[in-house]
Structures are given as structure tokens and as C-alpha cells.
Amino acid sequence: MRAIDFKKKVCLIERENVGGAGIFNGALSSKTMWELSQNYQMMKSSQYGYYVYDSHLSFSAVVHETHKAVNEKFQQLKSQVDFYVKSGELDFIRGSASMLSTREIRVEMENEDDFIISADHTILAIGSRPRYLPNIPIDEKIIYTSDGILSMEHYPESIVILGAGVIGCEFATIFSNFGKTKVYLIDKAPRILPFEDTDISDMVATNLAANGVHIHKGASLSEMTIENGQVKYILEFEDGTKEIRYVEKALVSVGRVPNSENIGLDKIGLKLNNRGYCEDEDTQTSIPNIYAIGDFTADIALVNIAELEGRHAVERIFGTNPKPLNYDNISTIMFLNPEVASVGMNETQAKKAGIPYRVSKMSFDYMNRAIAMRQKQGFIKLIVSDDDEMTLLGMRVLGAHASSTIEAIALLISMKKSVRVLAELIHAHPSIPEGIQECARMLLGNSITKPEVFSQGLTCYSVQTDGTIKNL
Length: 472
What we know:
Elements: H1 2-5, E1 10-14, H2 27-44, H3 59-87, E2 90-94, E3 96-99, E4 104-108, E5 115-118, E6 122-124, E7 128-130, E8 143-144, E9 158-162, H4 166-178, E10 182-187, H5 198-210, E11 214-217, E12 219-227, E13 230-237, E14 242-247, E15 249-252, E16 256-258, H6 265-268, E17 290-292, H7 303-317, E18 331-334, E19 340-344, H8 347-352, E20 357-363, H9 368-373, E21 379-385, E22 392-398, H10 407-414, H11 419-424, H12 434-444, E23 458-463, E24 469-471
Parallel strand pairs: 1-2, 6-17, 8-15, 9-10, 9-15, 10-11
Antiparallel strand pairs: 3-4, 4-5, 7-16, 12-13, 13-14, 18-19, 19-22, 20-21, 20-23, 21-22, 23-24
Helix pairs in contact: 2-3, 2-4
């Protein structure tokens, strides 16, 4: 679409579904299931002054609704592609492509002869797929990846999830929210979501456990097999003990790998790293007229990053000289219970970078909107530089409506603005983003809700490069 803006002739080649993992078997499908599971859990809750005594939960209906959501977006994309194909501005080819040279591409289509097209510039948006482990018999019937999970026909009585990263924790949340499945989560690390600060991962782990999820912490999977239509898995722990368990289904969620095989990259000498990802410089590969975007690159594998990189690559190709990409203010959402939103640095990253910083943290207990919603579990954490300027570095929000809080911070981080600018913003009342303003005011020493009064829910401190912590 961005290339069409430049009135250039565009050829789009896709062997599977337009939209890729951002829609199919990925972001949209899993988030639709998460939304449905959240709605169901709220309906079944008894803490809001009302209670639904009888309800019927149909897995097939949930899957059907998820497919409907996916198809809605697919039809939108298809309509747009069809429009530009009809106008002559776009050639769309359903087939498999491989590079013959830096300017020639072979296309294979079903029931048709192969043919060759030429292009001045090529963008490789080849995406990724779930990573398979060679010793696990993944069949997408009993042992699944995220690609096959929607082919389940009923809620399993039990499921084990291998991998406690974002995808693993999201599916643990989804299945436990519906309340029909006993969920086991295998985490080799001492804690889940190890890339996040401990206050985030600890609260998510606590909530998963409260929802009935059993987390195998510090456990290594030594074996996973299918026996008599069930999953048998054996765990080994650091103390040398072993544990054997049987469950109905399994989900393997141990990362993704790029779709870089069998597309001629070796023929043209495109430089890849040892994991098959492209080594690019601001989307440009080692071959000047070939660009790489999305999951094929070795940076952050997110839909919004893929879109940003795709637009950026086109703008570079057609000479608008955009500023180099900056990933410092990337906004992300983890669809957990409750949701987690992040932008910029967390404390772990600031420490690793050797940056002295200040933190203000406010519990949802003191936010009027959270009180009104009766959803007070969570917090807002704001991170700024430890100097007179107090430049915004990052924010983490765990709780209801977390995703509504991050955009203003992303903008201010990209502009390298001080927390003073943030403190001057007036947010709608009552709203969760009001807590951001109070966090900013805490750092400036002029908050309405005072940390010295509510020390359990409001904290403000600085951290030096040697690890020294000082309350502010």
C-alpha cells in the first residue's frame, strides 16, 4: 500500500493467506480468543454484586467466533488488494517465489508453468513459523503449536504448555479463563516472562496460579511423547528429581523461526545470521536493492514493527530519506490476566545499559477508575533518567485498560521529553491514564496522593549504576 502511494508498479506474491500470522494463527486469532475468555471470566465472577448461575460454554462456538473475526479482517485486505488489482496498480500472484538473481524472481503456481518476473527492488516479508523441537512429535492433533490450536474440537480436560514466554503465558491465560481445562506451564527459567522486571512476572505468575494454572518453575523437559492418545511428559529439576505427568493435550511454544529456506537466498549470497535471520541495516540487506522486514529480521517480531519496517523500506527505496528506524519507544501489549502494556525501557534494560534512573510506581488501588471498575489489581511504573532533566525512558502498566495508557508515553519518549511535560497533561476523569500523571507528579514531589501516606501502594526511588537504591 505504501508503494502504491508513490504511484509505483507493485507485484505482491503470497503462497498462503494475505495477512499472514498477523491475522491467521497469530495476533488477531489469539487476541480474539483472549477477549472472549476475559468476557466469560467476568460473567462467571461473583465479586461485582451479581452472579450468573447458569451458562453454557461451547468451544466450537468460541472457535467459530474467532474464525469470524479473522475472516472479517481477511475480507477487508482481500477487497483492498482486489481494488488495486482492478485499477492496474497492483499485480497479485498466488504462488511461491524464489530469487534467481538480485533482480529476477521465479514464481511457481499450481497447475501452471513457472515464470520469471524482474524487479528493480525486492522486499522480503517472508515471516516466520512456530519453532519445532526434533524430539517432540508435534502432530497438531494431540501436541500442537500456535498454528494448529484452533483445530481443537473441544476444551481438553488438561493441557501442558512448553514455554513461558508471551505466547505460552497468553494461551495459559486463555485456557484457564474458560475454566474447563487444567493448565500446566513448563518454565525452565526461575520465573516466567524473564525479559520483564520481577514485579511484572511475579504478579502475572500469581494471577495464573490463582486461576488454577500450575507452573513448573525451574523445570527442564527431558521427554514428551504420545502414549495411548495422551501426552506423557517427564520433567527434570535442578535437585536431580524427576516428575512424570500425563495430560490430554500439549502446546509447544518455544519461539519462532524465519521462513528463509528454499527461496534462493543462498544463490544470491544474501547474508543471514546463524539462526537464519537476515542481517539488515535499517531494513536494507547485504544486497543494496533487496530489503527485509518483519519476522525475517533479527529484531522485534511484532505486527506493528513489521508494518513500520515495511513502510520505512518503501520510503528508502523511493528516496524520501526517512530518519533511521528507532525502536526505543516501541509499544507492546501482553494479553494476560490482567493485560500488560509496555513502552521503552524497563528497569532490567536500564540496569543492563548502565543508566542511572528514577522510578515512580502507583498501585491501581488509588485510581478512581480502577476503584469504580472493581478491578484494583495492578500498577503503573514510570522510569526516567536520574538527572535534572528527568527524561522519560519507559513505562510498564499491569492492569485493566493497560493498553490505553501507552501512546502518549511512546510519543514523549521519541521526542526525548522530560517528565515535566507529562505532568502537565490533563487526562480524562475517571480514567486509568490519570495514574500516569500522578506517577509524573510523584517524581516532581507534587503528587495529590502522597507516597509517605500510602507507602504500600505508592513508591518513588532512584537506582544507581552500582545498584544502590534510594527512596525519594
